[in-house]
Write a structure and sequence with these properties.
The complex is a heterodimer of chains A (214) and B (181). Chain A contains 9 helices and no strands. In chain A, helix 4 packs antiparallel against helix 5, helix 4 packs antiparallel against helix 8 and helix 5 runs antiparallel to helix 9. The longest helix of chain A is centred in the last third of the chain and has 27 residues. Chain A has one domain. Chain A has 214 residues and is mainly alpha-helical. Chain B is globular, with a radius of gyration of 17 Å. Chain B starts with a helix and ends with a helix. With 181 residues, chain B is mainly alpha-helical. In chain B, helix 3 packs across helix 4 and helix 7 crosses helix 9. Chain B folds into 2 domains: 120 residues, no CATH class; 61 residues, Arc Repressor Mutant, subunit A (Orthogonal Bundle), CATH 1.10.10. The chains are: A mainly alpha (214), B mainly alpha (181). Chains A and B meet through helix 1 of A and helix 2, helix 3, helix 4, helix 6 and helix 7 of B.
């Protein structure tokens, strides 16, 4: 078939296209994943009993906002990288860096302010060895949703797209996990929460090229 | 923004709204740009150029819903062309990929080439290999220019099945082109 005949074939009767459908599906998948994530967390780990009381503490909101902001950055970046050629990631990256600097400074200050014998406890808390693992597990429903959502579009940088999907789902997993996790110190969050997100980012980068090919 | 960027963007946006005449013009202009772009990158493989032009055109068509009207059409098209080219190299061999410049995005519209060689791969034959529920809607609607309603009557399929058949059929063609190498 000649190329021009192919073009005629492709254009003939090519009706209007709903360009907003992928974004709607993306949103829908995220809502489902959030429900799944909360159910899995509540059923396996449980919402912590002191959650109601903790809402009075500034550090609680600091932690929630940190996770929420990272998740928002990850999701915005995921939607961008999912389109061919739309790789404007400078803003999300700058925001991400700024947040990590703020959280790192807060962590440094808390460690510096704590008495020397308490420093290790502030950093490790009671659950440092479970936290990253739980975050990676809870990121799974979000990872599935993000990869599925990205496949509605057509990412062309598969490894980067996979890494961003991994990061976004890690941050969403951390947000859900934070409703269980009782730790409320900046050094703990900036180390173990971020470590969990880094692991899911790495897994995403590993799986991206295989899962996202079209 | 270059003049071709504006013109192509305008044609594509109108095409996405359902103006098939504008869409055909978009595809024609695009094919000339693609041909020049790929000829330069496949200098050692002139026989492959037209096949890859067709494959990339189908990819652009299948993925046209991913164009966001706020983004430059050149960047969008270049990313798809680059993706198909890398895929092509990956399936062939891993060597050429290192010798081929891929990231000179503004160059996609630097030249245009109307001189279509004969494609080696015959899309008609690939089309013949599709199952009836995809092939018949494509043949009736796309090649013979019948309406969806008429095609539904001719084939005994429902109208939505005809539309789904066209959509899936074109996607299947794209997949077969890729596997076909």
């Amino acid at each position: 078939m000649k190329t021009d005949d192919l073009l005629v074939l492709l254009a003939a009767g090519a009706g209007p296209v709903d360009t907003r459908l992928p974004v709607r599906r993306f949103r829908w998948a995220l809502v489902m994943a959030t429900l799944a994530g909360i159910v899995v967390m509540a059923a396996s780990l449980g919402v912590r009993p002191t959650l109601g009381r903790d809402t009075g503490l500034p550090m609680f909101w600091f932690k929630e906002l940190f996770c929420l902001a990272l998740a928002a950055i990850g999701l915005v970046a995921a939607l961008r990288i999912a389109r061919p050629g739309a790789t404007r990631l400078a803003w999300p990256m700058a925001l991400l860096a700024a947040l990590l600097v703020v959280m790192g400074a807060a962590a440094g200050f808390q460690l510096w302010a704590a008495p020397a014998q308490d420093r290790l406890g502030v950093w490790l808390g009671l659950s440092w060895n479970q936290c990253p693992f739980n975050i990676v597990v809870l990121s799974a429903p979000f990872f599935i949703a993000l990869i599925w959502g990205m496949k509605q579009l057509a990412p062309t940088r598969l490894r980067l797209a996979g890494a961003i999907a991994g990061f976004g789902s890690g941050a969403m997993g951390a947000l859900v996990y934070s409703l269980h996790c009782p730790e409320l110190t900046a050094p703990f969050i900036v180390t173990w929460y971020v470590l969990g997100m880094l692991v899911s980012t790495g897994l995403g980068a590993l799986l991206g090229p295989r899962l996202l090919r079209w | 923004m270059s003049a071709s960027e504006d013109r192509l963007r305008n044609l594509l946006v109108r095409g996405l709204e359902g103006e098939s005449v504008a869409y055909l013009r978009f595809l024609r202009e695009l094919s000339a740009f693609l041909r020049a772009f790929l000829k330069r990158r496949l200098a050692g493989l002139p026989d492959e150029v037209e096949d890859l032009v067709q494959e990339t055109l189908i990819a652009v068509h299948v993925q046209r819903h991913t164009y966001d009207s706020g983004q430059p059409v050149t960047a969008w098209l270049h990313a798809i062309a680059r993706y198909k080219l890398i895929d092509f190299f990956r399936l062939r061999s891993r060597q050429e990929i290192h010798n081929t410049p891929l990231d000179d995005e503004p160059e996609l519209m630097a030249e245009s080439d109307q001189d279509a060689a004969e494609a080696r791969r015959d899309v008609t034959k690939l089309l013949a290999g599709l199952p009836d529920r995809q092939r018949l809607p494509i043949v009736h609607v796309k090649l013979e220019g019948r309406s969806v309603a008429e095609t539904a009557r001719l084939t005994g399929m429902s109208e939505s099945a005809v539309k789904v058949g066209i959509h899936r059929g074109i996607k299947a063609l794209a997949a077969r082109m890729r596997d076909d190498g």
